[in-house]
Amino acid sequence: MPDTPNAACHPQSIRDVVESGLCIGCGLCQALAPDRWRMTMTVEGRLRPAPLKPANPGADAEILRACPGAFVEASAGGTKSDMVWGSYTHMAEAWAGDADTRFRAATGGVLTALGAHLLRSGKAKFILHCAADPERPMRSKWMFSETPSQVVARAGSRYGPSDTLSGLEAALERQQPFGIIAKPCDATAVRARAKDDPRIDQHLVALLVMVCGGASDLGKSQALLDEYGLTEDELTVFRYRGFGNPGRTRLETKDGRAFEKTYQELWEDESGWRIQTRCKLCPDAIGEAADIAAADIWPGGTPTGEDAGLNGVIVRNDRGQALFDQAVAAGDLVPGKDHGPRDYDDFQPHQVAKKRSLAARLRGLAAAGHPVYRHAGLRLDDLDAANKDQEAGSEMRAGAGRFSEAMPEKTTVPDASDSAQE
What range(s) does the 4Fe-4S ferredoxin-type domain occupy (predicted)? Predict the structure, then answer.
């Protein structure tokens, strides 16, 4: 791949991906090989594939071809292109046409509104996405939503681990048109998998993502429970955002107590974010493989208070543009003013910094003999800021084992990733 660092080594197995800290727990392993892999919550609070059988790298080759810890590629279906923000057809702001959806969902409810529109219009029979686990609401669970009301009821950001793609094979087996709402890394996996599985292009009608700041491990959420002296089995609600923009994080218990933190209070201490390693090395957190990506658009990158909520929308290709236009015509989305790439530089400055630092970080990993993913079309070499501190820091951390993880032990016990297919 032309963008991949020279002399870099690449993961040769699922074990390599996990032990190198390149796994994001998307669930693709379990979807494609449920007899060999089961998604398991580790003691660190990360969803990782645990082996059910002895290693068989040859049998897992098809997984590795699509694994976002092994390969990441941009799509180029737009009519315009920007060095930082990639290929796109349209940048604008929008919000859900339904006031309740706009209020309940994170930011302006664009992804929720688009999912509901796909179902309401009959373009999709169901949406594959994740939502709070009804039995363990601090955790996320992949779901099939078949009605607009289900999509709205399950709205809201999920900042902890999520394995939405554990449901991909089950979705394809239904042989019905469907949409996906997921993370950018999930979208890259779906696009790569489509090269081997023609059912994806046949049945997937929309691939929708949020512009992602990184997925925390479950320890971030557990720390909040510890602060309030709660245990996970006391919870009935763990809402990360929504019910306003950005909305408060809210916990409710079985005995009627409630606890809240503002967005700023929850995220003010960056050292406590507990962002997973793969996110720190993510070459595409902006949804370049999606049809539509929705973003927070706070000037300077930080909210200053609560408001009615609106999203930035990056339409990536003609299919995404047609969906956006149809949702607006139906009243399911309300469009605001148009934007350009430099507006997004201001709204999401950390994404710009990450894009410009990735080449140096990957060089540092390669210099330490640490595996890196293959990547193509993401312009990392062109954006390279040649930051020697980033390069040296990555080499030092990799050499010290800071990016490494232990592979979960062999398991035969069902875990949190079992789905709710409703």
Answer: 14-44
